[in-house]
TrEMBL record:
<comment type="function">
    <text>Plays a role in cell adhesion. May play a role in cell-collagen interactions.</text>
</comment>
<comment type="subunit">
    <text>Binds to type I, II, and IV collagens.</text>
</comment>
<protein>
    <recommendedName>
        <fullName>Transforming growth factor-beta-induced protein ig-h3</fullName>
    </recommendedName>
</protein>
<feature type="domain" description="FAS1">
    <location>
        <begin position="494"/>
        <end position="624"/>
    </location>
</feature>
<feature type="domain" description="EMI">
    <location>
        <begin position="39"/>
        <end position="93"/>
    </location>
</feature>
<keyword id="KW-0130">Cell adhesion</keyword>
<dbReference type="InterPro" id="IPR036378">
    <property type="entry name" value="FAS1_dom_sf"/>
</dbReference>
<keyword id="KW-0272">Extracellular matrix</keyword>
<dbReference type="InterPro" id="IPR050904">
    <property type="entry name" value="Adhesion/Biosynth-related"/>
</dbReference>
<keyword id="KW-1015">Disulfide bond</keyword>
<keyword id="KW-0597">Phosphoprotein</keyword>
<dbReference type="InterPro" id="IPR011489">
    <property type="entry name" value="EMI_domain"/>
</dbReference>
<dbReference type="GO" id="GO:0007155">
    <property type="term" value="P:cell adhesion"/>
</dbReference>
<keyword id="KW-0732">Signal</keyword>
<dbReference type="InterPro" id="IPR000782">
    <property type="entry name" value="FAS1_domain"/>
</dbReference>
<feature type="signal peptide">
    <location>
        <begin position="1"/>
        <end position="20"/>
    </location>
</feature>
<keyword id="KW-0964">Secreted</keyword>
Amino acid sequence: MKHLTLLALALTLIVSICVAKSPYQSVLQHSRIRGRPHGPNVCAMQKIQGTDKKYFTNCKQWYHRKICGKPTVISYECCPGYEKVQGEKGCPAALPLVNIYNTLGVVGATTTQMYSDRAQLRGEIEGPGSFTFFAPSNEAWAALPTEILDALVSNVNIELLNALHYHMVNKRLTSDDLKHGAAFSSMYQDFDVHIHHYSNGIITVNCARLVKTDQHATNGIVHVVDRVITAITQDVGSLLDIDDDLETLRTAVAAAGLTTMLENEGHYTIFAPTNEAFEKIPADTLTRILGDPVALKDMLNYHILKNMHCSESIVSGTPLETLQGTVLEVGCDGDEMTLNGKAIIQSKDKLGTNGVVHYINELLIPDSAKTLMELAEGSTVTTATKMFVDAGLSTHLSGSEAITMLAPQNDAFKGSLTMTGEMKKLMRNHLIKDKLSSKGLYHGQELETLGGLKLRVFVYRNNLCIENACIAAHDKTGRFATMLTVDKVLAPPMGTVMDVLKADNRFSTLVGAIQKAGLTELLNKPGASTVFAPTNAAFQAMPSAELNKIMGNSQQLASFLKQHMAEELLVSGGVTSHTRVKVMQGERLELGLRNQTMYVNRVPVVDADLMATNGVVHALNAIIKPLPPKVQSDQAAGSVGMTRTAAVRSGTRVLRNDDLFQKVMKSRSSRTITRVQ
């Protein structure tokens, strides 16, 4: 019991330590593990080829050897706070603990050290105190626009000093203290610096990435950052107000009633479409959305993420939730930030007190703000869309009517497509009254089309089908209507199973057999059955003697036919690799699907899904025969044999085992064990 208690305590401590780790510390630990073969306190770093950007490595990046889609080179460096010793492996020595001014030199932030001298900040960061210095790297100062740098260095006692003070906090903050969404008062007029600590281990301050973290000093701590940061005084709503390039967006935000939200507290990410982005949209579409408050709000919320994401936080494609409720795939391609795989971000990281703004040159329109016609654009149903238009149904696709469109994929249409009266009627029956969701459909449900037909819903283990057409993609839910992509052109039922067979000359022999066997009423009455219908060719392929024998006895004929009739309605889309169906007479049939062909007891179906009001017909060019019995494997048979042999010999074995047991119990070792207990 004592050992169990200690074990439980140990496990609790381990779990507590693991849970308490920050994302940054977790990534750092992974880098330490990867660097361990090279000596103590060595961290593995990944550097993007052709750049100076380095990252501690996490598990995913380590195996992919890519960051932002670009190949990386692995290097091994001393972990934060350690240094090499000549002649020894790894980084065994801790860095000397000196004041912040000298620490800037130790960590390579020599430009910040130089400007601290010029601004007469040296005395402050050499003296007593407990400071956090977010020190720009040498590269960060070099990347600063010339006019800004000139303005700073031309007035070192005020502008440069203020800029450096804004990089400082008057207390020691380690990486563990830099929590996501935190804000700390800087030493420049108490303006806040904004911290974001992302799940991938990246930490930013005002969107500048911490590239060297936790460099301890006697009077504080230094974190090296990859850019010079500036004070933030305006919210994101105000940022939109003062930029002429966002005039159309500003008008749309006001019309949607979102102005107040963008002025309140929050951590928003706004992908702000420029005036040019709005101009790229067709005038009719833009006018419709701007005049529809619901669609407009949906569209704008689709440009706003629920959480704040600086560009430096993105190292791979990540789905991020928007205020509209769906997700945007935010990623990167080298230095380019991408949205849904497209490099449309022309300016990034314009920071406000309650979020960040990235400028985009393309307007994002979510499905929820689109008409059916717009939903279909650029998709796999362009042929169906053209057919709807040719059938004179375009007003239904672009209007505000609540409908659901069953849109067959392009490859569902075969041969030449002539718009006849029948085809117009068929396309009309692909439009269902009411706006539906596939998740709300249930087995046996009936859906009424604009053409007046009732379509049945079939729910299978592997598929959801409406008559013969099965759902082939996720729903696209528009402003007023829904588009369901299906794998086939709809074949609405046009009569009973008997009517379907009579209307097709291929089944004349089968129809005669059904009538002779007295099964006509069975195939005419309401129900849900599946008929695997042998064609005339199938009957002709039978030996004459066998065919005559079956046809000469009505009872035997009825039994033969019922072996081809299942007691459930099964369309081809509901068949998996191993499907079994119960027939009206005889053993279950085994169905399968290979190369998009359906098989019944290994007989291929030559024409599937002939829909009827009381069932479905699948045509076969061969008679269904029972499958041969499955042969038991040699291993299984051997196992059975061994069991039987063991049973026969069990008496002798029990006696032998009993003798052995008595000898063991009388042995010295057994007596010793008894005493110990």
